[in-house]
Amino acid sequence: MNSMFKNKIAIYERYRPDYPDDLVQILKSKSLLKDNDIVAEFGCGTGKLTMLLLNNGNVVHGVEPEAEMTVFLQKKFARQSNFLLYNQSAETSNLPNKYFDVIISAQSFHLFNAEKAKNEFYRIIKQNGFILLVWYFIDNHSPIAKDICSLFYQYGTIQNQQKRQEISIDDLQKIFYPNIVSYQIINQFEQRFSNEEFINSMLSSSYSPTKNDPAYLNYVNTAQSIYDKYSTTENHIKYNFQIHLYSLQPKGSL
User: What is the pLDDT of residue 108?
Assistant: First the structure.
């Protein structure tokens, strides 16, 4: 995977939305996660989901391909004895065979080679284990969501990556066939941003140019125009995110 977050880690950690505290409780209520489960997390990023899993008492084996992210995670979780970190890819993780109760990937499966990652997931998961794919999306019913997505995709070709919206339940059903993928929206939460917070949240995107890129200033100016268009009299901007969960329990000979 290309280093799409190079020089963006501090801004990513500070300004990207956190997962709601009750996300793990929702997974537990659906019998998709237990307190003593051994979890493989693919694409840890800055460890926003990792922290929730560790706080739940899970042992987490984190797989993160980006070297800069790996260094950040090593420092962030240096005192966590139940976190093991691997600077490897989702396609070749070097994790042990048939070892994990749960495999989870949040905001990242769309960046993997889907077929190779699937085979790696099948190799390491225990019988009757669960594979969980999580994304949060801006609620696309709002006008602001359309403007933000337009900003991202205008610059998407710079990062040479696939649009997240192109991974649908139908795509995942084909990828994991004959196993059946379940899909549901499990939560919705509102985010409020000041002007500074909004601009920086836009800059934390994998689609955004970095400061040395000729397109950087245009990107920032376009983001500023979105804030100006939708900001309230209380000097903030707000919009909703939805958490989408895709889950499956592989069956048969893998």
Answer: 93
Q: What are phi and psi of 111, to 5 degrees?
A: -95, -5
Q: Reduced to 3 DSSP states, what percent helix, strand and coil does the chain have, rounded to the nearest 5?
A: 40, 25, 40
* Short-list 174, 161, 176, 154, CA closest to 252: 176
CB-based contacts of 232, cutoff 8 Å, min separation 6: 238
Global confidence as pTM: 0.90
**Over the range 224-233, which residues count as b (16 or more CB within 10 Å of their CB) and which as e?**
eebbeebbee
Question: 9-139+162-191+241-248: which CATH topology?
Answer: Rossmann fold (3.40.50)
* Backbone CA torsion sign across 19, 3, 138, 112: negative
Is residue 118 within 8 A of residue 176, CB to CB? The reply is yes
Question: Count of CB atoms within 10 A of residue 31's CB?
Answer: 8
Q: How confident is the model over 113-126, as pLDDT tens digits?
A: 999 999 999 999 99
**Per-domain residue ranges of the chain:** 9-139+162-191+241-248
Alpha-carbon gap, residue 172 to 6, rounded angstroms? 28
CB 58 within 8 A of CB 35: yes
- What is the 8-class DSSP label of residue 112? S
Give which of 159, 64, 155, 163 is closest to 106, Cα–Cα: 64
13 contacts: CB under 8 Å, gap ≥ 6: 46, 48, 72
Rounded distance, CA 205 to CA 185, Å?
22
Q: How far apart are CA 48 and CA 62, in angstroms?
A: 12
